Amino acid sequence: MTFAHATDVLNRHNQGHVLRFWERLDAAAREALLAQVATLDFESIARMRGMLAAGGGAAAAGAPEPAGVVTLNATARGAAIARGEAELRAGRVGVLLVAGGQGSRLGYDGPKGAYVIGPVSGATLFYYHARKVLALARRHGVRVPLYIMTSDTNDAATRAHFEQHGFFGLPREDVFFFMQGMWPALDAEGRIILDAPGHIFLSPDGHGGTLSALAASGGLADMERRGLTTIFYFQVDNPLVEVADPAFIGLHLLEHADISIKVCAKREPQEGLGVVVMRDGRCEMVEYSELTDEQKNRRAPDGELVFKYGSVAIHVFSLPFLKQEAIRPLPLHLAHKKIPFCADDGTVVKPEANTGYKFEKFIFDVLPDAKRVVTLAFDRADEFSPVKNATGPDSPETCRRDLQAKWARWLSAAGQPALPLEIDPAYALDAEELREKSKREKLKTEMLKC
Ligand code: UTP
Q: What's the gap in Å between 100 CA and the centre of ligand 1?
């Protein structure tokens, strides 16, 4: 992009101030700024400005009611597993991992997936995810492609981490990295914020950016080329996740769902998980912050919370639905933040108060478009313990504790003492596999390897 072109585009969109420090910039800074301008998505920026001018998001209309939740009895579970395993064996399941976030609460300087979580081995979050995909591919004798969404801030480091660890045993041609979009932040007047004279403040466009990024990167086309039908979606911060759990995949298929969602009972009414609701006849996710205190604490006659279940961002999508949604603009969510900005004299100000607006898209905003949504309850002790915070709840400490408690349950089910070990997913993907292996071989006290 040339300076003249950038000036023209920016002026047309009332963002001419972006180049106001041009004369002070050296050649490299000018080039970098023009490259940033070239990435700006002015259609979305116009929507952001519209949202700011309208004073934020549109207020929801009707009152939310909790969506129905499926719990599988042994027979239904068996049928779902059989259906899910058939799909896996047919090589029609792909795995989609979103790892583009900034992990600001954890405060780790690197991609969150490269964070060391293994209590004994020192393995990283990516290790567990990749080894589960490897184990699935081996168990079912097929290729299971892994699609990993990164962002501009962690793409190179994520790829390097996989290289450094030999892709954790996965065939490299079955790992597809793609980058989500980056969006600028706006000030109260809708002007793009510069955080240095030659630099636009940009941040990832939210996990909802997965859809457009999958389409733009060729990820969707790759899924189609491989003949996939069903995509398992999860987040990088939860090493307990049961990747492509056959019962979940099978239920999704038996129910002909567009999207299926795993939910678990909230720890307490105030826990910050989204809730799947029906509102005005449509399914949607209500963020924790959107529920009133009365709604969070409301109890049914049996004493249970009415909005009892929270979503932990473990989903299954049908590929046609993903394709359909990839070309629809998702709603925007706005957050008022402390964003450094460049004053008119070119000095950088780190504000004490929230002065800028960041915008994001959320993956669950596809829900109202789905013709059929299935919500499946699971036991959080087995499948959910995220690394969100540096300390306290949902921290590395609680996650390691929960990982070891899960492995201890597997060992106990196999009639083994709860040794201080780790179970490599590629050694045993579940309790049943561990039990079978322990009949044949002696378990070691260090991390189990295949
Ligand atoms: P979180 O909402 O927990 O955000 O993301 P985060 O960036 O990891 O952490 P904080 O909020 O800054 O502390 C949930 C999941 O969605 C992914 C994250 O990588 C994580 O797997 N995500 C989030 C993206 O891929 N892109 C985004 O823009 C935001």
A: 6
CA-235 nearest atom, ligand 1: 21
**How many residues comprise the chain?**
450
Q: What φ, ψ does residue 235 adopt, rounded to 5°?
A: -105, 155
Alpha-helical (H) ranges within 141-245 are 155-164, 209-217, 219-225
- Is 11's pLDDT higher than 70? yes
Pocket of ligand 1 (CB under 6 A): 98-106, 112, 149, 151, 180, 204, 206-207, 209, 235-237, 388
- The SS3 of residue 215 is helix
Check pLDDT > 80 for residue 32: yes
Predicted confidence at residue 445, as pLDDT, reads 65
Residue 323 and residue 220: Cα distance in Å, rounded? Answer: 7
CATH number corresponding to 63-410: 3.90.550.10
Q: How far apart are CA 313 and CA 398, in angstroms?
A: 19
The packing angle between helices 3-12 and 27-39, to 10°, is 40
Atom of ligand 1 nearest to the CA of 389: 13
Q: What is the 3-state secondary structure (H, E, C) of 208-225?
A: CHHHHHHHHHCHHHHHHH
Report how far apart the first and last C-alpha atoms of the chain are (Å, whole number).
Answer: 52
Gap between the Cα atoms of 288 and 172, Å rounded: 38
Tell me which residue has its CA closest to atom 25 in ligand 1: 100
| Ligand 1 center–CA 163 separation, angstroms | 23
Q: Kindly report, residue by residue over 360-391, the tens digit of the pLDDT.
A: 999 999 999 999 999 999 999 999 999 999 99
Residue 63 phi, psi (nearest 5): -80, 140
User: Strand, helix or coil at 355?
Assistant: coil
**The whole model's pTM is what?**
0.95
Q: Which ligand 1 atom is nearest residue 103's CA?
A: 9
